Structure formats: structure tokens, C-alpha cells
């Protein structure tokens, strides 16, 4: 999927593309009448033209180099559903010393009125900013006077101190694009690794020389003018069960390799892992914190009291850190201050929590390492060379005997050695203070498992009264415990659950192992629900699919070009036994099924019947793989479609004479 493009190759490649911006406000009848059928007949809006250019320039005020990025786009709106494309959000980076700024922003809406195009210019007061996080600011605005058929247009200039990643260009967005063109001016003293991600191909690309594009210390520097063009770009449709869209959208990425100094010599930015290992092991906010055994040395005997082996010690330390340091919901691979302060204040970011765990495990003479990773919503990391900005999360790894356990102490409701699903994303880099770093697969150590058992009796007035037992393990138990924890008490949770279950009334309840996260979570409910009103108990319909029914197919695309990533395998089993009030015969019933996915990917089994006046339902739904490749998508879609279709059928029961 990632195709690394050699900068040298681009410099000698010359194709016919001519980079050209388009005039602002020059709306044509072709724009207004553009037939969406040529791209996507279902599109609510289409990008007619998009042009961007980026260059490195010397800032006259600060006398430092900055990246100047200009963006210009024109969009056709077809219906009210397309109005959301007029809500524009431009993210910019900021920290205590540097920030990106937006200038020369203009935006207009064009409507065709009385045989003329009428422009409505956006009021500058309509632009506002929002601090999304410590490092991200959002510039937001909405185009005015929207109508079905409007053409909107906007442009702006972004100034950035960030030269390392230059400026990513996304060819693919959430609506189709007729044309998306990007021109990058790279000074000859800068060498970038350039990569094209995604499944769409470039329509054209070109590299040519731009003379004296930059002057530093009186020295004129030439640039490589690189042009990338993609035409007729389909929309990227996000669907459930995927990692970050940036992994799959077609886009050009830049990473700075080295800079040739004007006075001679070269500064390399693409380092080896050997270089990075040495640096990280000596960082005050990472390696130094891993070495802080002194913080826990006197606490370890108390924490591990009663532990008979190393695994029990590790579990005791893990539980101690979970209780002592509360996660402040910030990600990061570096400690915000130091782990001693995190322990004293009982709060910290992800790194504070898990570096404390590593130091405590080490203080107990256990072999502990740090694992740097990128969360599912942050994208995958570059494995060709270290790019530290790719990583946004740190967990612990403890090696006991011939087994290794990955630990994240930020979530009190997670059992030992089960990472949050947000961490299950490709591979992580293991940092060991004594050995070279290495890659490790980030795989869920448990399934999401749920078992339902309903045993009940049907009354003569058409009600079923019985006991529903639910056993949850792995990620299923974690999700349920987290859901319950949002309420003031389990009783309040059940009360709200009873309100949501419109057909089923909960009479009594008990929940076991709520805080014992290493054990299965067990819920027991005495329930009652009505099958029929009792007016015709001689013959009635009864649907057995009232426990976690599948009513909607999660896979609806005609084609999916990226994998289905569930994070973990799953196993759900449902057993129902309902005794009827008398002798009945079965006229109709849901068809018994045995449907499998290729490559032992999963199965759905259903058996239903009536024997000794007891209705029985046995249902098994297994998805054995955490990840299904794009070419398996249609099998999954058909798999769910067959299940949904069968679950529309019911029992038809007739009282025997």
C-alpha cells in the first residue's frame, strides 16, 4: 500500500502535467451544470477543482525559514445533504514556542440567479478559532447563503515552522474530486523522503527546476518543483471496524531526511534505531524514568507481600499502579514531568502511568521494557526509519519465564495483560535500556466473549417469565464494566437498562465480579416479557431473536479497499429454553443454519426446535480473525446478510388438539 518514491527518481521524471492554479471567483456554466454522474451519481457534493502549493521561504520578521502553504478549492453542492461540505475546519499546530497561522482567508458562495452568477462573500466575523487540545487549534467557518446547486469556493495561506513533515496533501476526501493538484517547491539543500499512500494512482507527476527560489545568507538556492496530479478521485467512505483513515486515504507524505548546510557539511534527520535507542535511553522524560527504581524500592515488599512467584508479583504491581495513579486522559510517549511527581500527585499522562509501572516492575527485579506505539486513530508508524512523531502512546512489557505480557495501567477495569483496543494497531517498538530496540506485534491477548442463557416458562396469557444469565469475558467484559461504571451504582445502571429494553421488564437482578476484573462478569436478571396478548393462545408467532439481534449489516459498501480491523476476535453464544403452557405443534420456524467464512474466518450456527413442549434455540456467532483483508469483505457482507435475513423469520406455534 505504501509506495516510497525516490526524490532522485522524481527529479529526472518529466511528464506533461502543467501546474496551474485557477482564478478565484471565475465560476462558469460548466461548474454550475457539472453532471455528478460522470463521477458518482450518489454524491451530495463534488470538488470541481483543488489546487495547493507549498514552499520554504525566509520570514522577514523572524529571519527563520517557514513553510508557506496555499490552498484553493471549489465545490459544487447538489442537495441539502451536501451542505455539510460548507462547514470548513482547518487544523493548525501550536506549542509554547511556535505556532502555525492562517492568513488571507476568503470564502464565497455562488448562486445562479436571473441568468447571472451572484456571489455572497463570507463575513470575516464568521471565522472563529477553537483550541482543540494543548497542541491543536481549529480555524472554523461556514460558507453563507447555501442553496441546492450552489458552488462554494475558498482559499487561504498557512504559515508553518514545521519543515520536517513539509506539508501532507490529501488527494482523497469524503466527497469525489474532479481534479486535485499539488505543487511542492523543495530547496536543493533539503532532501525529503516522499511517499504516496492509498490505493488511487497518480494521473500525472512532473519534476522540473525552479531557479533561485530561495536565498540564504546571500546564496541563491534552486528548487525542485514537483507537481502531483490526481483526477476523477472517488470519495473515501469510512466504515466501522477500521484504523485511522490516514492509513488508507490516497495522499502524499514528506519526511525530512537531511539538510545540506550552506557552509558545508550535512545535518541528518533520518536516524537509525541505534541512534534513537541511545537518545531515548538517556531522555529525562523516558529512559531516565524507566531507571527510577528508587521511587518504588521501599514500597515493593509491601506491594508484593504474599506473592509466591514473579507472575503474582507483576500482577500485584500492576494493580497497585492502576489504583495509585489516575490517567489524566492525555496520550504521550514522554513523562510530563517525572514519575515521582506522578506518584505524589496520583495523576499523569499515559507515559507517566506506564513508566511508573516499568520502574516498579524493575524495582521488583522483573525484566520490564517500554513499548512505543501508535493508537488506532493515529495511523501506523513508518518502519523504514524512526519517525518519533509517529508514536503517541507508551505501554509496559514484562518478561516472565518464556512468556511476555503487554500492560497498560491507565484503565482500572482492564485485567492483567489485556491492552485497550486503542493500542491494538499493527506493531510497536520495544525499548530496552540494555539491548537494541525491536518490533513487536500488537495483538489482542483475549477474545471478546459473551454467553447468554435464558431459561423460562410461558404463561397462558402469553408472557415469558424466566432467568437470563450473561457471562462476559475479555473485551466484552471490559466494555460492560465501563458502561456500568458510568452510573452511580449497578442498581442505577439496571434501572436505565430496564428503561431501554422496551419489550423486556427486569424484575430482579444481581451482578457478580464487577470489580474482580480477572474473572468473568456475570449478570443475572429475572425477566418478563409478552409474546402475545393471550387473546389467541391457540396459534401465535414468537421470534427467538430478542437477545442481541443483528438488525443492520455493518458492511454496506459495494467494495472496500481497506481491511476490516475488529481489533480482536469474538465469540457469542445464545441458549434459550422456554417451556410452553400445554401441548403445541410447530408449524413454522427459523431455518437451521451453518454458515462459514473462508480461511476458517468464522461461523454462524443456528439450531431451533420444539421438543417436550420446550422451545429451544442454540446460536453461535464466531469471528475468528481480528483482521479481514479487503478481498474478504464481500464474504463478510454476505455472511451478515444471510444471518439478518434468517432472523426475520419466527416460530409459528399451534396448540395441539
What does it look like?
InterPro entries: Papain-like_cys_pep_sf, Transglutaminase-like. The chain is of the alpha+beta class. The chain folds into three domains: 252 residues, Immunoglobulin-like, CATH 2.60.40; 169 residues, C8orf32 fold (Roll); 208 residues, Jelly Rolls (Sandwich), CATH 2.60.120.1130. The chain is built from eleven helices and 36 strands. The relative contact order is 0.08.
What is the strand and helix layout of this fold?
Layout: E1 3-5, H1 7-12, H2 29-32, E2 45-58, E3 65-77, E4 87-93, E5 101-113, E6 116-121, E7 128-131, E8 136-142, E9 151-160, E10 169-170, E11 177-187, E12 190-197, E13 204-216, E14 219-233, E15 251-260, E16 266-268, H3 273-282, H4 287-290, H5 300-303, H6 310-324, E17 326-327, H7 339-345, E18 347-348, H8 350-363, E19 367-373, E20 393-400, E21 403-407, E22 427-431, E23 438-441, E24 448-458, E25 463-474, H9 475-485, H10 490-500, E26 504-512, E27 521-530, E28 539-542, E29 564-565, E30 570-579, E31 584-588, E32 593-597, E33 602-611, E34 614-623, E35 627-628, H11 633-646, E36 651-655
Parallel strand pairs: 2-11, 17-18, 24-30
Antiparallel strand pairs: 1-12, 2-3, 3-9, 4-8, 5-6, 5-9, 7-8, 10-15, 11-14, 12-15, 13-14, 15-16, 19-20, 19-22, 20-21, 22-23, 24-25, 25-27, 26-27, 28-36, 29-35, 30-34, 31-36, 32-33, 33-34
Helix pairs in contact: 6-8, 7-8
